[in-house]
């Protein structure tokens, strides 16, 4: 590909559905007792140290292809996909790097695990940013580090959210990879062929957080944890569903039906989470995905109002009933009776 002018992007439009940057109570994190699970963490650390993907994220000659055959709309869809993915991976890198630094003296095993996970996330983010350069754009990651807003989560919320983020990332990547292996005519950009090994990083990271949750039974073995697990499962699933509903054209460009893709990813992630969380969502309930569809439609109305109405006061007034409908639909999903995984998945296995 000929050398082209690459624009550096510093500003990313933020919304409730945008990938977030997180911080936590590092002192509380440093006091976690993992002594009863030391062998499990040592085994996980040894696997991280092997560094299976050390030589995986290397661009080859396939990246020299011309992208002139892609129309501007398709290019825009790919840029948005790469931008969001890069932001999410870089967010993980910053969090894990800081955790490693803060835990180094008090919990060296966890500190090294976080350091090696930050290594993986840095590779992912860098690889995605280089891919963006193929579309004449790159993210200014240094600017993002200093200027992005950080959301505070307590350690247990970090565990729930990052476990689900890593696992849902695994199922998204492997599902896309398997689809494009069967339908290579839709693999219009070579980054997708890297997804098989890439998603194994996500899976190993998820297994690490599963081990952390097992080492802290107070986070998964009481009534309060059941409510929080339901909340985070629904939050992660609804966020993905609403985001992908806005990007139907992107999935169509790679030969996927976005709704069916999300349904498969949600089912697989829910099953994975059920092996560590005390509850899983009842995704087989006849109304579950129907209600998510309603959420997506309500969210679309909010986006259209923001785009088409320049009067802030009238826009706010018009949005209130839609926000109310969206909140009601999400509450119906939240209060849908969950699956008690302690009995269900153990029985299946």
Strand and helix order:
EEHHHHEHEHHHHHEHHEH
Beta-strand content estimate = under 5%
Mean pLDDT: 90
Shape: globular
Radius of gyration over alpha carbons? 21 Å
User: Could you say which structural class the secondary elements and strand pairing correspond to?
Assistant: mainly alpha
The strand order across the widest sheet is 1-3
Uncertain runs with pLDDT below 50, 5 residues or more? 343-349
Largest sheet: 2 strands, parallel
How far the N terminus sits from the C terminus, by CA atoms, comes to 51 Å
In short:
By secondary structure, this protein is mainly α. It is built from 13 helices and six strands. A two-stranded parallel sheet has the order 1-3. Strands 2-4 form a two-stranded parallel sheet. Strands 5-6 form a two-stranded antiparallel ribbon.
Overview of this protein structure:
With 349 residues, the chain is mainly α. The protein has helices at 26-30, 38-50, 72-103, 108-133, 141-147, 155-182, 195-215, 223-245, 248-253, 258-273, 288-308, 312-334, 341-348; strands at 7-9, 21-23, 137-139, 150-152, 279-280, 339-340. The strands form three sheets. A two-stranded parallel sheet has the order 1-3. A two-stranded parallel sheet has the order 2-4. Strands 5-6 form a two-stranded antiparallel ribbon. α11 (288-308) runs antiparallel to α12. The longest helix has 32 residues, at 72-103. The protein is globular, with a radius of gyration of 21 Å. 34% of the residues are buried.
